[in-house]
Fold these 2 entries.
Entry 1:
Amino acid sequence: MNILIIDGQGGGMGKQLVAALKRRFPDFTLTAVGTNSAATVAMHKAGADHTATGENAVIVNSRRADLIIGALGIVIADSLLGEITPAMAVAVGQSSARRILIPINRCDNIVAGLPELPLSELLAKVLAEVEELAEQNA
């Protein structure tokens, strides 16, 4: 399975995602795209198989991915403090890949009805979803 992880700002969430996915699913290909170089470097250091930075990297890799993982903001233009361009949001939204969107209530995007969970709990839920998808595709 080819998994695309998209993160911005400092890349902290993406770094944790890459590390956890690599430990749990060592045979999956992890491509990490940062909206900026700091995020890309953080995910590269965490063990991503491939890394890239910027709008075009999000667009190209969204076409190639089987699964895309990132904060809810990756499908909302101008989110992540403006780091998600309209073209990035469209590419992720129009991708044929399945998407696991993490409900981070920041940057003026609030998901009503969901409790605020610590990042560690959200990442555990992401891993469980990936596990379930992997079993369905096995």
Entry 2:
Amino acid sequence: MAEKILLVEDEDTLAMIVSETLASEGFEVAVARDGLEGIEAFRRIRPDVIIADVMMPALDGFSMVRRIRAVNSDVPVIFLTARSAIDDIEEGFGLGGNDYLKKPFKMRELIVRVKALLRRKHPADTTVGGTDTALGGYRLNPVTRELRYGADVVELTHIEATILAYLAAHAGEAVSSSDLMKLVWNRDDFYNRNSLHGYIHKLRAHLSRDTNVAILNLRGIGYRLIIK
């Protein structure tokens, strides 16, 4: 059965190009013209991935995803936007977005990102390692994507789990942003760098309960996971 993609985009020409291209890749595509239509379509078709414009009439993409996340924390979301301010990017990831593409974008890049998010259904094929890893007071299982702190469990996204597992495997070492981007998206470019920053921001929030665990910025290099 073909994976279902919900495309929420108010620009008719772009919506047509994106939907036809995705359909040619074998996806089943539903199109909504604003956030309100997007919520209705989400309830009706239960998509495997949502692709959502940020600036839309009636209900913007961020507000739409906020409502969807209240009932479904798992469906992957790619935001499309003409805006590139880091505050907007962080807001999108903070709301539960999984990826971010700035308009104009190449259709091939969108398809690669959609397929990367769909691989989250088969984490054993793409994550680093398969056993629990201790991170201070946390335990990470990269296969189930569960991050445990005592009795509390957070289910990470596939990309979050992949990044954290890689950092954990190289704890105390400098890990380049380029290596992380190639691990997740198979390429290193400006927009992936912004996406990576968003995922690191979310992982820091997940790890905030143990002050002995931290992900440090290494200016001009990347990141280092510190476990005291």
